Amino acid sequence: MRKLWLLLLATVSVLVLAACSDKGDESSEKEVSEYRTVYSGEIKTLNYLKTSETNEFAVAANLVDGLIEYDQYGIVQPGLAEEWSSNDDATVWTFKLREGVKWVTHDGEEYADVVAQDFVDGLNYVLDAKNESSTAWIATVVKNGDAFYNGEVTDFTEVGVKALDDHTVEYTLENPTPYFLSMLNYVCFFPVNGEFLAEKGESFGTTNENFLYNGSYILDKFEPQNERVLVKNDTYWDKENVLIDRIRYKYNKEAGTVAPELFLRGEVDAASIPTSVIDEWFNDEEKKSQVRQSQNNFYTYFYALNFDPQFDAEYEPENWKVVVNNKNFRKSLYHGLDRVSAMLTTEPYNPNDMLSNTITPKNFVDVEGVDYTQLAPLADVTNTDSFNSDLAKEFKETAMAELDGKATFPVKVLMPYNSGSPDWANRAQVVEQQLEGLLGTDYIDVIVEAGPSTGFLGEVRRPGKFALLEVNWGPDYADPASYTDPFTEGGSYNKPEFAEGYKDSNGKSTYQNMVDAAKSEMDLAKRYELFAKAESFLIEEAFVIPYAVGGTGYIASKLNPFEAQYSPFGVTAEKFKGQNLLDKPMSNDEFKEAQAAWEQERAEALANAEK
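== Oligopeptide transport system substrate-binding protein ==
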């Protein structure tokens, strides 16, 4: 089965980049290697069993290890599990843990051994509804996971995870799941010491002291809105491959704006370079040698239309609710958004290279050599630019006629953005001007509003305080199902289940039923075809407007992305393990040369892994 998994993994391509004590002996013979960065979005918790926010599990990914990890080519490697196997239909998976791995406290004191029960306790916490874990829905892949979460099963021993002995953990799944290994790369399957968790209760993960570590780093300092410092864990089982001794994050609410200057002054080791200054960098010989493209990843970006608006009355949520339920109105926005104009705010040189017509990016998975995005009927969407000014105007006229007497024009379209991102702020202004310029201010009034730089998801997106919003999603495992999660019932994006006229006879939305049918199909070719139909429906009905893939823009960095662990899903991209600090940043030419070499090496590594 491991060979089967590696074969499946070979169908998946690219992602990546991510994010010895602080009071250590600076006078020791070995020079301390320190990576410094600046941030504006503060984390609210270290509780990796509860959060689904990238900036939070990005920290935890360096503090706690899971059963498996990936090498720099995206090939699965042993983590806390030394070996594993599955039965023939991939419903039962057994993992043998490496011995001698320790849980340690924030000051490096050994607390306990890492044992199989820790994985049971972790999943018990995630699937206990009272803990409100944001990733519980992923964990329901295990047998009776959903039933336990919903209270239909109350005895956790009936859930499909067992500690067979101290160093053997077994998972029994609801359905055949050949991609299960990829799911283990996500925080809901991480271990926790049950005794420590019970002792700390709700304070678990609130401070670096209320936390245990078995990963490559320990959180030595945690001062919200000031500084956090990660230091190398000297008890780590694979410490020889932890090459950066210390990682120092400094808080600055204007991080996105000041980082480039801090980089030039030598105060930080990485900075995103906003589009507003990228020309200046490329026209200066010294700066040009320090800036390069970002590496593309499998985050997908799209504009979500909200069917359950919860914003203030001044923005007329009831009027928005009327118009968003008109398909022709939605289609006018779908065909009216000039995505190239929007992308120029991030990628001014090759904007078309970053655009995506689908939610699931190209090259994520394929079946029998055919890329998922080229399966019918999704292929028509994939191969057609959504922007069409003539169609947009036609849909506008039809929508206005249909909504006459039912809605008020111009329609207020509340479009917030995260104030911590200069490029996003600029893009919001561009989208406002472009849409109003094409469709007319008699039709729409796009209202751009600055949202918080910290807590944007919790304060804006999740409560539904938007009409139109740029959002993103990253895959959690190697299956198209992962890209359906934002839009299925209970998702926290635009609530398409509230769309009027799309309920089937069983009371569920049409899209939900399409996804459920795809998830229940185990034949890979049929499964992917059903997912392609569901995704095509979502886009053709203009519930969302696909926009781009992640990894856009330019950065200056002393990290080599091709040394990093690599995977399109889970927490791999956030790990510093395996990376060195470069003496000087990569130039764009050096980046392209290194990327070409990496792609060739990766193809060879994947071919060897299949043997």
